[in-house]
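for the recovery benchmark. tokens below, seq after
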């Protein structure tokens, strides 16, 4: 999904819900789901057939990939890593995805979407622990400070995103200092405080076949 160049709104319509792929647009009446709440394509309105168990599992995996903006091979690697850790595999998978640097940049409000966050990281606008990190998949640890570089703090896109996110509450496992444009991971998130509408058990069932 990282190299998808088509209309992001089509992906939301295919999943039948907002995936918040286009930032602030998703909160307005211009959102495609608000205007056309049916699947894309000529026969989108007529798709009423009940999905099989496999179809539901596949859709959930595709939905997760689209939300976190990662490729199939990357996603499978995350699953195998989650499987090797102690605990519940599905929850481990979400934790690994949430710890990605591009996701943390998005969660802190430095970018309006995960795609924009990936670009900000790639262009070396973000520091972790005082050093520049330009790898979107970098895994952030508890105590790590994630901040916008001093030279990048005047960027209009970053300032606009922070301003737009002021009204939204920061997740309990993150802290944010708007003035310093920095945040910190206070603890690893649990399934209960990850606000992503994914049934991870379906993904586990898919890959366990």
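predicted aa per position
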């Amino acid at each position: 999904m990282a190299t998808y160049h088509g209309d992001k709104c089509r992906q939301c319509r295919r999943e039948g819900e907002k995936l918040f792929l286009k930032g602030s647009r998703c909160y307005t009446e211009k959102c495609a789901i608000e205007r056309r709440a049916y699947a894309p394509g000529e026969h989108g309105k007529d798709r009423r057939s009940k999905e099989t168990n496999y179809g539901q599992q596949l859709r959930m995996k595709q939905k997760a990939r689209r939300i976190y903006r990662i490729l199939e091979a990357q996603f499978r690697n995350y699953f195998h890593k989650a499987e090797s850790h102690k605990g519940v595999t599905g929850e481990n998978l979400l934790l690994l995805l949430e710890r990605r640097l591009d996701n943390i940049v998005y969660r802190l409000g430095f970018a309006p979407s995960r795609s924009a966050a990936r670009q900000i990281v790639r262009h070396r606008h973000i520091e972790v622990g005082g050093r520049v990190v330009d790898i979107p998949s970098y895994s952030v640890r508890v105590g790590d400070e994630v901040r916008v570089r001093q030279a990048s703090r005047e960027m209009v896109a970053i300032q606009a995103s922070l301003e737009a996110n002021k009204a939204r509450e920061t997740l309990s496992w993150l802290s944010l200092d708007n003035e310093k444009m920095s945040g910190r991971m206070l603890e690893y998130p649990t399934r209960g405080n990850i606000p992503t509408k994914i049934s991870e058990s379906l993904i586990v069932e898919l890959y366990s076949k």
